[in-house]
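Now for a concrete sample entry.
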Amino acid sequence: MDTLPNDLEAMRRILAELTARVYRIEQTLRIDSVPQPQPRAFEPAAPAATPSQPATVAAPPPPPVPPPLKTAPHPKPDADIESRIGSHILNRIGIAALLIGISYFLKFAFDNNWIGPAGRITIGLLAGIAVVLWSERFRSKGYQAFSYSLKAVGIGALYLSLWAAFQLYNLIPSGAAFFMMLVVTAATAAMAWAQDAQLLAAFALTGGFTTPLLLSTGQNHELALFAYVALLDVSTLLLILCKPWRPLLVMAYAGTLLLYIGWYSTFYTRDQIGLTLIFATIFFAIFAIAPLLARQPETESSLFASVPAALAFVNAVVYFLQTYAMVQEVDKTYMAWFALVLAAIYILLSRWVQFRNTNPAAQPTLHFLHLAVAMGFITIAIPIRLDAHWITIGWFVEAGVLLWVADRVESDLLNAFALATLALGVARLLLIDNFSTTQLIFNLRMATYAVAVAVLGAVAWYAARRTDEAARTVAAVAVVALNILALTALSHEISDYYSRQIRDLRLPYNRWNSAYALELRRVQIARDFTFSALWMAYGAMLMVIGFLRRSAFVRWQALLLIALTIVKVFVVDVSQLDRGYRIVSFIVLGVLLLAISFVYQRDWLQLSVNKKEHAEQTPASL
């Protein structure tokens, strides 16, 4: 029985020693420890149990839990900046310094004729190949950024060496230099494919489009140049079919466009229109289908998310301008038909995107964009082919057709295009078109306004069939515009009628004769009275339509027009009209106002009942 207290005392001593050792370790490592309860002092052993009372053994206290160790702090931003400077910036600076040093040495050697032209080219080619091979060693060890930097230096050295061999020293013919540069481009593209490196593909594409510039002799080689460019574009198209490298599309299109513009501004003549137009069409076709076939990357930055749509739009605009610059000198009618053909092509492309699902991620954007481009070409074809007011009529007809098609296929986008085209037509009709008529009412101006009014009526009718708020707004605007155009057309007829009368007065009278002044005054008074009569009659017609259709919107338009007529009668007509016209104006206006007032007082539309019901349904708090 005596051994049990001794064992407990030994265990307590061991725990105390362990606690002291942990404390010394924490102080050495400077780790904040969680305060632990101090071990209790040694208690004397309980007295021996009597035979009548069993002895109880106290359980040993649990050992203290060691404090949790704190994790190492995250590296500071200064460490990240230091790492970036050491691994990237110093990398670039070191490569640049090495190249500069080698360049100085080579220049010194060249100046002293230590190395001849053939040796210089050989050194450049061997150095470029060695640097590219050396870069693979760094890539295998995981230093990809450093490896790509060395590859850029090596590939650049190869291109420059071949350029110097042909342009500076005339050591090799142009065909051999071109073939060697093509081998460098193909080898770079092969490395890009094998290593799945988009950056290397960009190097290859840059070198490929730079090759014609490096080997240029200032002579016109259209067929060879554009055939080579078409080969590069087709290669890029095949590459993006297998790899999600959309930025290459932008690079290829930019390179193609720059080479085309450079050649066109230097060498193009009218007799080359056939071949040039063929190559322009080939380039257009490649970049028209490329956005539809480009692979969608799994993760894509917002900078390149809109590459297909932007490329499709720019390609269409540039191709049309290219063709217009060549064909419009021959015949403008061809360009109008050409625009319509392009519109048909883009309609087919939009249907292809919609039904074939070639690129689901970009499908909605490309579908609507192709449709928008098609409508744009149709709108452009009208002013190219037609002249003067026929352009306005063509736009109105286009808007009407688009409205009908949009209603059949239930397309809000086509409705938007129809409204945009209609707005163009109305703006041209009011601001640009200048008609010269010789007959009242039955003339081309009234016909143009009638077409506009008819299309606006169709807009209001189609919009009224819908229940959404936007359609109601469109219908209201269309009705207001319809009435404004109708009044404008009738006012033009009145103005033309009296203008001809004033012009006829100059024949029998001298301009400074008092009789001419009296006749001129009579015609002007009749004209002002006719304007007032027209406004009153049109307002009365609107009021009747508003009552028959039970349309408050139409009635408010009538009231506004009648209010303007009242202002004109009391402000203008009273001071200028003769007594007879004045009497007729006031009598007609008074009868019209009394008739409208009588209709409202009889409450034929039951407006007061509707108002009362509305008030009963509205909470008193409102």
